[in-house]
Amino acid sequence: DKVLMELIEPYEVRAAKLREFLEDVKPSLHYDIVPLADPYGPSVTDPNLQCLVISEETRRGGEAVNKKRIENGLPELVLYEILLMKDPDHAQNEEEKISSSSLRQRLLGTLLRPPRQDPALPSRPYVIGLTGGTGSGKTSIAKVLGQLGAFLIDADKLGHAVYVPGGPAYEQVVAAFGAEILNEDGTINRKVLGAKVFGNQERLKSLTDIVWPEIARMVKEQIREADARG
């Protein structure tokens, strides 16, 4: 349930930063950095451990560790509680303590890497591909971009347009999947068509090979239209 898990740094990077910090604080310190594959790690199995550093919010976790140690026949650890440093610049929607969750929140809307300078990419029109799963916020972001002056191309709407009678993929789809996919008025029944291709990779590829190039062509047409309108 971590906030923005996809922005958490890889274990190797986090371990390297921790190692650098420990060496900077006290080079003579002996330490082991280990990945945690469960909520407890070595704290409930290592007989050489004597103390566990906790904060007020992790005290229950420390008590759970000691309970596990007793079950494993090991002595309890001393729970040494420290105060967490407060972030004087935390926003209203952020935690009061210095927190990696807050740092990940601040990364939203920032460039994680500089734009790639590719001479093959024209400076105009500048095309942004907006992708994401259902409910990920594509519509909201597109609305904001539209308010800023962007020309919006909705690939979902184009995907519906290619199927309509007279549309660029209509005849090919009917020829490939049969008249049984048609409604009485001659329109393609998307549910019937979907049932034909669902779970059948070969049929699905046959459909996408017909439809996707037509959608791409329509997108390119709209990009040229946007360019002509400036």
Automatic annotation (TrEMBL):
GO molecular function list: ATP binding; dephospho-CoA kinase activity; pantetheine-phosphate adenylyltransferase activity
Annotated InterPro entries: Depp_CoAkinase, P-loop_NTPase, Rossmann-like_a/b/a_fold
UniProt keyword list: ATP-binding, Nucleotide-binding
GO biological process entries: coenzyme A biosynthetic process
Any one Pfam family match given in the protein's UniProt record, by short name: CoaE
Family annotation (SUPFAM superfamilies): P-loop containing nucleoside triphosphate hydrolases
Entry-linked NCBIfam families: dephospho-CoA kinase
Protein name: COASY synthase
Originating gene: Coasy
